[in-house]
Amino acid sequence: MDNHAKARLIRPWINDEERVTVDFVNEKNLNAQVTDCTGEVVSLALETAAPHMKQRVTLPLREIEVGEDRTHYTRDPDEPVRRVRLRLTVNVERPVGML
Q: I want to staple 3 with a disulfide (CB 3.0 to 4.6 A). Which of 26, 61, 97, 98 is the partner?
């Protein structure tokens, strides 16, 4: 899948109320919020162990595979419930550092 096709699938998930699942090489099943997506990169706010603190990362789309997470559903109360959510598989280790 090329970068533009990935971006088309990711952009609808830019929503403060929705979460996506992110798998890195060294960490799996992380909750994240998509904050931006261009034809080249996606920006995420990853949940951390510290409540109300997010790790913000920007990743190149070439390092990402886009799929579905059928173990979670959507949560935006203003939208119809969907029984799957976006899963991003990142072919690198999770970046170190907070915020």
A: 61
Question: For residue 20, what are the CA distances in angstroms to 2, 5, 77?
Answer: 20, 17, 16
- pTM of the full predicted structure? 0.91
Output the average pLDDT for the chain: 93
63's CB contacts (< 8 A; 6+ apart) are 90, 91, 92
Spatial contact of 20 and 13, defined as CB atoms under 8 Å apart:
yes
Q: Which amino acid is at 27?
A: E
Task: Tell me the per-residue pLDDT of 33-54, one tens digit each, with 9 for 90 and over.
Answer: 999 999 999 999 999 888 889 9
